[in-house]
Specification:
Layout lengths: L2 E5 L14 E5 L2 E7 L4 E7 L3 E8 L4 E7 L4 E7 L1 H11 L1
């Protein structure tokens, strides 16, 4: 069973300095984690329920945009270009 963990850069802005966005991917699920001072948010999606994944490239960092077949959109901010490319390849 393959398992991958990606953490956004702390210097990318968008609230990542203290609690960076994280994406976890295994053979069946993608988990998006956005932590906060109190609580946080985990979104768990089956890989087969993802309709598209896009890397929105910026000068230094990329945003990952994940759309599900149910119409939900998830935006994770501040990943390196290489991580963003690998994430899109894993899910596609």
């Amino acid at each position: 069973m393959a398992y991958f963990e990606f953490t956004a850069s702390r210097v990318s802005g968008d609230g990542n300095m203290v609690f960076p966005d994280k994406i976890f991917i295994d053979d069946e699920y993608l988990i998006f984690r956005k932590s906060r001072i109190i609580g946080g948010k985990d979104i768990r999606i089956r890989i087969d329920k993802i309709s598209s994944v896009t890397a929105d490239r910026h000068l230094l960092f990329d945003d990952i945009i994940i759309e599900t077949k149910g119409g939900q959109t998830i935006k994770a901010h501040g990943f390196t270009h290489s991580d963003a490319l690998f994430i899109t390849e894993l899910i596609s």
